[in-house]
Amino acid sequence: MSKLEIETGVVVAENLDSVEAPVTWRTYAMCVFASFGGIFFGYDSGYIGGVQGMDFFIHMISGPDAKELLSWQSSLIVSILSAGTFCGALMAGDLADFFGRRFTIILGSAVFIVGVILQTASAGLALLVAGRAVAGLGVGFVSAIIILYMSEIAPKKVRGAIVSGYQFCITIGLLLAACVSYGTENLENSGSYRIPIGLQMLWALILGVGLMFLPESPRYFIKKGKVEEARKALGRVRGQDPNSHHIEAELSEIRANHEYEKRMTPETGYIGSWLLCFSGSVGLASSNVRKTLLGISLQMMQQWTGVNFVFYYSTIFLKGTGAVSNPFLMSLIFTLVNVLSTPLSFWLVERFGRRSMLLWGAIGMTICEFIVAVIGVTVGFNHTHMEGELTIANNISAVNAQIAFIAIYIFFFATTWGPGAWVLIGEIFPLSIRSRGVALSTASNWFWNFIIGYITPYLVGTEHANMQSSVFFLWGSLCALCIVYAYFLVPETKGLTLEQVDQMLDEVSPRKSAAWKPTTTFAGREEKQTTA
Ligand code: BGC
Predict the structure, then answer these.
(1) Residue 307 beta carbon below 6 angstroms from any ligand 1 atom
(2) CB of residue 445 inside a 6 A radius of ligand 1
(3) pTM higher than 0.90
(4) Residue 54 counted as domain residue
(5) Does the pLDDT at position 278 exceed 90?
């Protein structure tokens, strides 16, 4: 320790790289385990499509002669989950600040299990819907706070890759759900829906019990003013002696940043602390309101890429073309491409950074979506009327080309916007509003997820707008907006500590952010202040 450090009690990192303690394999193991929460997210949004098509389930809900669920029933069953997750995500921010990140995730798992028990026990609509609402709350807690927790404990060099691991788990969850529903759909008893629904308890148990053994986020303890607990937690997270110089230096940096933020923000009550998320000028990239809007809009744009059109409706869409013999299998291919491509993002996100990833991803998706739409109009096939062999042959090759480009589109999504949006929302908020910022952004994901899920049948349904594959003009245009959005508004956060991200947003615009390098540490600034 320098003489100055002894006098001020602040340990200053020797250089800008040592603002983070070295890590051991345990750190990685902890983060990888936390990413397991993504399985919930994916499985829960994925299983319902399959269950809704099961004969036993349809008869139970809509009567013995029904061939499909009534629209309002289907809409209620699907959307109640998003409503629950939306509310859960919003509440989760407060809980995470009050009781801790870890506790909120464990609580989310417990709430989710209650919801799943209700659904599994249900033999009619009412209990099923109630169960989905409760489970939704739990998924909301977990989906928002896992991101927060992972971003706060992950080492900066691999933070992007680690949070992308969460996206990978979402994709695995979607795949598992599709496979399990496929496996049980022909059962002619309640096992057809009870098995896929009940199985989810396993994910919650693994996550909830596992987290009991993981440490709390040290940044949460700092926010609570519990420095000694923060030191111990950081020691565990980094696999180092809590009294070592490395831990002391990292802790000082987190503390100094928090002190700095506290000085910049007025003391407020509960409502005031929510309003803090919207404080400052919209014109200033470093203001809280800009960061909050950035988080909310990032998740909105992620949903606007149209990805869930593919996951929720591709089976129906492909069925409508009349040119695909097994639409279910085809949509399973999209789910597989999603799973297999996502790991590439672990490398991309740290090699090229978040900004380039989102920019190139949006360009790739736009091109693919326009190609799908253009094939649809130029070949001119009509989903409902196919006349003559030539037309059918044209249709088959056109539909095959469309399927190929949809698969390439999914590849672009899975390697860029899928993980990228989650990575960024964990990084852009200062500690004072981080939990709420992440919660608001996650709630936005669920909100748009719901809106898109809700309106899509109206866009493509033959009795409504009947857009057929021209709906890809819409998704393509929205993806084109994503290009502009990424170029002007997305900052580069690669390789920085969360505290350095704060500093960077203070100093440069998103367009110049990739070239920004930290020159001072927060602990260094605090030290100067104290000795001045
Ligand atoms: C999105 C989900 C989507 C999934 C597909 C996630 O990042 O938020 O809405 O279904 O990716 O992999």
Answers:
(1) yes
(2) yes
(3) no
(4) yes
(5) yes
